[in-house]
Write a structure and sequence with these properties.
Keywords: ATP-binding, Cytoplasm, Kinase, Lipid biosynthesis, Lipid metabolism, Magnesium, Nucleotide-binding, Transferase. By secondary structure, the protein is α+β, with helices and mostly antiparallel strands. It folds into two domains: about 160 residues, Ribosomal Protein S5, domain 2, CATH 3.30.230; about 130 residues, Alpha-Beta Plaits. Helices cover about 40% and strands about 25% of the residues. The protein is built from nine helices and eleven strands. The two termini are about 35 Å apart. Bound molecules: (3R)-3-hydroxy-3-methyl-5-(phosphonooxy)pentanoic acid.
Length: about 325
């Protein structure tokens, strides 16, 4: 079985599309997996995703078929007789990277058929090419964190490959994640912001730069052990996202509820207009914050944590 994790954008969403740095972390407990089974000779390749209520053949016009074809081309593999079954515990259309994780697991499953193990940057790039074909102007952060499966700083460069740097983690950090229950399409939110930016770039560029400098501070806070300071920076990022017009009243309410329940900080995460928010909490507060988020109308909540890296080597 081949799998890939879900992800959270810790800071810097949207500004990352405009070449500012952003931070993302994998959520190991939520995963997408692909099981490959041989099919009768001549059957070709079919993809089954009972969790998503979908079945399709390789030649269908769908993002995953496109990715499968790109991967077979890369591997120089003819279409195999294969039944691929996808399962995923990552909620779709909510900012947790379900599309990228399913894609990365699919690439790994096909590579296994060719007896190959692909490097993370190759998997990431194949998923990115396919996301670009179907989702407009993705920054590439989702496919990167999901394929590398470690906390990363990601920044697009004016030319060439993006900057990808592993993040130092100073202590075990605990997060509560809540789903607003409002499905939101990344392409729509990113497209709307792009239209507004095109009409009047200067004020948006100022906001993006402010988010970028906050991201650098958050990167340092993540490597420290100062919870309240880290939390405050995350909450500041939320305020800047509100100003950009990508939050919504439900996300704002959930952020407020988390802060009132004693979280060190909270923000929406991902594209916004729905989807998820995250709260940085002490281990002792995690369950209470989770409960209060439920009471405030979250349809699903999770706890996830980040382990310290051995950064003092
Ligand atoms: O796809 P989501 O909801 O995890 O969010 C994408 C993050 C954005 O910065 C808004 C878009 C992008 O491509 O980076």
């Amino acid at each position: 079985m081949n799998s890939a994790p879900g992800k959270l954008i810790l800071a810097g969403e949207h500004a990352v599309v405009y070449a500012q740095p952003a931070l993302a972390i994998p959520i190991a407990a939520l995963r997408a997996s692909v099981v490959a089974e041989p099919a009768p000779s001549g059957a070709g390749m079919t993809v089954h995703a009972p969790d998503l209520g979908l079945v399709w053949r390789l030649r269908a016009t769908a993002p995953l078929s496109d990715l499968a074809q790109r991967t077979l081309d890369y591997l120089q593999l003819p279409e195999p007789d294969l039944r691929l079954t996808i399962s995923s515990s990552i909620p779709i259309a909510s900012g947790m990277g379900s599309g990228a994780a399913v894609g990365a697991a699919l690439v790994r499953a096909l590579a296994e058929q060719a007896g190959q193990q692909l490097a993370a940057h190759v998997i990431s790039d194949l998923v990115y090419q396919s996301e670009k074909a179907f989702h407009g102007t993705p920054s590439g952060i989702d496919n990167t964190v999901v394929a590398y499966e470690q906390p990363i700083l990601f920044q697009r460069q004016a030319h060439g490959e993006p900057l990808i740097a592993p993040l130092a983690v100073g202590k075990q950090w605990h997060f509560v994640v809540a789903d607003s229950g409002i499905a939101s399409e990344t392409k729509a939110v990113v497209g709307d912001l792009r239209q507004r930016w095109l009409a009047d770039q200067e004020p948006y560029n100022v906001q993006f730069a402010a988010i970028g400098s906050l991201v650098r501070q958050i990167q340092a806070a993540l490597a420290s052990n100062a919870g309240p300071a880290f939390g405050q920076l995350l909450s500041q990022n939320h305020q800047l996202l509100q100003t950009l017009g990508v939050s919504c009243s439900k996300l704002d309410q959930l952020v407020q509820a988390a802060l009132e329940a004693g979280a060190w900080g909270a923000k929406m995460s991902g594209a916004g207009w729905g989807g998820i928010m995250l709260a940085l909490v002490s281990a002792e507060r995690a369950s209470h914050v989770q409960q209060q988020l439920r009471a405030a109308g979250a349809v699903q909540t999770w706890q996830t944590s980040l382990l310290p890296t051995d950064s003092k080597r």
